[in-house]
Design a protein that fits this description.
The chain is of the alpha+beta class and 246 residues long. The chain is built from five helices and 15 strands. The strands form four sheets. Strands 2-1-5-4-3 form a five-stranded antiparallel beta sheet. Strands 8-7-6-10-9 form a five-stranded antiparallel beta sheet. A three-stranded antiparallel beta sheet has the order 11-14-15, with helices on one face. The longest helix is centred in the C-terminal third of the chain and has 24 residues. 26% of the residues are buried. Bound molecules: zinc ion. The site of zinc ion has 7 residues, from helix 5.
Length: 246
């Protein structure tokens, strides 16, 4: 379940709750609409911004923000391994009942060769990182009865991982530099006596992403770099969400 905050173009705010299925359907619609942007948050939420044209000169903005009702907590490298094993196996399941010979498997999650011990499995479910399906009958070894529930990685967990993969950093402008240090030649630079004589103010702000695939030198200072970084996070979120909704 998600906490929903809708901010209309006129600034009015409405709040409520939304199911995972509802957020998924909004994401699907947003991905097919070029007037929409989506951005995952590191807490497992998502912000969908839609520009609505109503004949005015500039579009009106409607912002839909969703955050999981239950905080996911920190996703450690270990938890992430469990989630990626479970996420890559549609048959991943939790064993709920088994005969005496297989009682140690009760409470465990199996995802192919990957297994998650009962205590860790319970935490993944309680924290809202996994969604558990209905119970169904199966067998432990081909003939001993067992009951299972399918498990899958929650939307909130996926969003938190996308945001973690695309954490961006924007540094301060380089400041006063010698023209030659930024590849400029000739007589550029301040013509004043003192320490800054002959120097230039370099407004370019470096910005980069944890994914390693994106970096930018904002020609127009940190605001420009931050705007570009946000655009990168939005396009990375859209691509990653489209990949798992497929
Ligand atoms: Zn990135």
């Amino acid at each position: 379940m998600f906490q929903e905050t809708i901010t209309a173009a006129d600034g009015t705010v409405e709040t409520g709750t939304a199911s995972e299925a509802h957020v998924v359907s909004l994401l699907r619609r947003a991905l097919g609409n070029r007037r929409c942007t989506v951005e995952a948050t590191c807490t497992g939420g998502v912000v969908i911004v839609r520009e609505v044209w109503d004949g005015g000169v500039i579009p009106k903005r409607r912002t839909l923000a969703f955050e999981p009702v239950t905080p996911l907590g920190n996703i450690t490298a270990r938890v992430r391994e469990d989630l990626s094993a479970i996420g890559s196996r549609p048959s991943a399941h939790l064993v709920t009942k088994a005969e005496a010979e297989f009682r140690t498997s009760v409470g465990r999650i199996s995802a192919g060769m990957w297994g998650v011990a009962p205590a860790a499995s319970r935490k993944l479910v309680d924290r809202g990182l996994l969604v558990v399906g209905e119970e169904f009958a199966a067998t432990s070894n081909g003939y001993l009865a067992e009951t299972r529930r399918l498990v899958r990685v929650s939307l909130a967990a996926r969003l938190a991982m996308i945001a973690a993969d695309h954490r961006t950093r924007t540094g301060a402008p380089a400041g006063y530099v010698r023209p030659a240090d930024i590849g400029m030649t000739g007589s550029a630079g301040l013509c004043k006596p003192g320490k800054r004589s002959g120097m230039l103010y370099d407004r370019r702000s470096p910005s980069s992403c944890a994914c390693g695939d994106w970096s930018f030198h904002g020609a127009d200072g940190p605001d420009d770099a931050r705007r570009k970084a946000r655009e990168h996070r939005q396009s990375a979120t859209a691509a990653a969400v489209a990949a798992f909704l497929d």
